[in-house]
Automatic annotation (TrEMBL):
InterPro entries: DAGAT (IPR007130). CDD domains: LPLAT_MGAT-like. GO terms for molecular function: 2-acylglycerol O-acyltransferase activity; diacylglycerol O-acyltransferase activity. It is an enzyme of class 2 (transferase). Its main location: endoplasmic reticulum. Keywords: Acyltransferase, Endoplasmic reticulum, Lipid biosynthesis, Lipid metabolism, Membrane, Transferase, Transmembrane, Transmembrane helix. The chain crosses the membrane at residues 28-59. This is Acyltransferase. GO terms for cellular component: endoplasmic reticulum membrane. It is a multi-pass membrane protein. Its EC number is 2.3.1.-. It holds the Pfam family DAGAT.
Length: 334
């Protein structure tokens, strides 16, 4: 039986729904629309628009790997306040970040679409610049996303940068400090296990970000987003199922995969791609001081990695009861 939304929904809630709908559209379809429009214009009298953009695109091609190009106007747009209020999403600080230092943050868990990561770190919806004054936030996104015309510029304007080493080096080596580079460490593999009540992280063998922190002397910041996994359900894809086999094969060959997720609809509550209205609370942990080690040994990387996992577990345990996580529930690191 389909449960339809009442006609008397307040305007405020309709605006919240619209804000989330445009984000889902950006995740799932905007890149395709950008390609269609870019190519389609070539066969109209407006063909010069695509040609001029292509020239700009070529000249600007390295920008996603050089720290991007943020827009305070877009990051501070009112629409992100409505996005935040839909769930709602909250940003919690447990320690100060020194603006004279650079930081490398691990964001956990990925969730289906990393909604909390985007809302907190790429917009002012939760007031990031007020919570952490003097800190400029960047979030890594797969480099292939920056191959899409216009979409690339939109992504960079929010603080998204290319997820490769060159990009990280550009940000973490800035001498004046004040930069927070966040990596959703679990990546696509972790998105495949995101479902309500799950606290399983793909982290055991993810050590590249640890080596980066040591190489550049960037303090490590653990971030845990409570509720990130609760806003969508997924089709059953346990290891051994045909769906998981297909998803793993796709990831192995393309480095991407497709979580088959579902939530509610825009005008009804029974099915669709809109997330559930469930709270997300992103807790930023205390920085782990890192001494610059230009050529860290594997032993040094492993030691810091173990400390990072321990600090992340402590962060989870210290806050879980506040955010409705059962007392006997612990992080599962794989």
């Amino acid at each position: 039986m389909v449960e339809f939304a009442p006609l008397s929904v307040p305007l405020e809630r309709r605006l919240q729904t619209f804000a989330v709908l445009q984000l889902i559209f950006s995740y799932l379809a905007l890149y395709l629309v950008c390609y269609i429009v870019f190519i389609g214009l070539l066969f109209t009298r407006f063909w010069m628009i695509s040609i001029l953009y292509a020239i700009w695109w070529y000249l600007d091609r390295a920008t996603p790997r050089r720290g991007g190009r943020q827009s305070a106007l877009l990051r501070g747009a009112t629409i992100w306040k409505y996005l935040k209020d839909y769930f709602p999403i909250s940003l919690v600080k447990t320690a100060e970040l020194d603006p004279s230092r650079n930081y490398l943050a691990g964001f956990h868990p990925h969730g289906v679409l990393a909604t909390g990561a985007f809302a907190n770190l790429c917009t002012e919806g939760t007031g990031f610049s007020s919570v952490f004054p003097g800190i400029r936030s960047h979030l890594m996104l797969m480099y292939c996303c920056f191959w899409v015309p216009v979409f690339r510029d939109y992504a960079m304007s929010t603080g998204l940068v290319s997820s490769d080493e060159e990009s990280a080096v550009q940000i973490l080596s800035r001498k004046r400090g004040g930069n927070l580079l966040s990596i959703v460490v679990g990546g696509v593999q972790e998105s495949l296990i995101a479902r309500p009540g799950a606290y399983k992280l793909v982290l055991r063998n993810r050590k590249g970000f640890i080596r980066l922190a040591l190489t550049h002397g960037a303090d490590l910041v653990p971030i845990f987003s409570f509720g990130e996994n609760d806003i969508y359900d997924q089709v059953e894809n346990s290891p051994g199922t045909w769906l998981r086999w297909f998803q793993d094969r796709l990831h192995k060959s393309t480095k991407c995969s497709i979580p088959l997720f579902y939530g509610r609809g825009v005008f009804q509550y029974s099915f669709g791609l809109m997330p559930y209205r469930r709270p997300i609370t992103t807790v930023v942990g205390k920085p782990i001081e890192v001494q610059k080690t230009p050529h860290p040994s594997q032993e040094e990387v492993d030691r810091l990695h173990q400390r990072y996992i321990k600090e992340l577990e402590n962060l989870f345990e210290a806050h879980k009861l506040k955010y409705n996580v059962p007392k006997d529930q612990h992080l599962e690191i794989c």
